Amino acid sequence: MKILFAASEAVPFAASGGLADVIGSLPQAINENGHDCRIVMPLYKSVNPELRKDMKFITNLTVDVAWRKQYCGVFSSLYNGITSVSYTHLRAHETDSY
Question: Which end of the chain is more exposed for a tag (fewer CB within 10 A), N or C?
């Protein structure tokens, strides 16, 4: 089964509470049972540069937000056997975390 967790935080990328712990560990346990579990989350400015250097650029797109267009970059990384897809946009890039 293919499963995608969309979350605002995940250990080790960004953490401020229990959600990050769950999203950082549950996908690994699910994958050990033969499933394909992945994570998608914002790419915050506070993400450790050591983790950022392993991220691969996938694509970018422009998203219509009300009266303006917003850049969105999409990156992928593999950490502890879990594929993580992170996206950057003006708001996520300017904040340390949510």
Answer: N
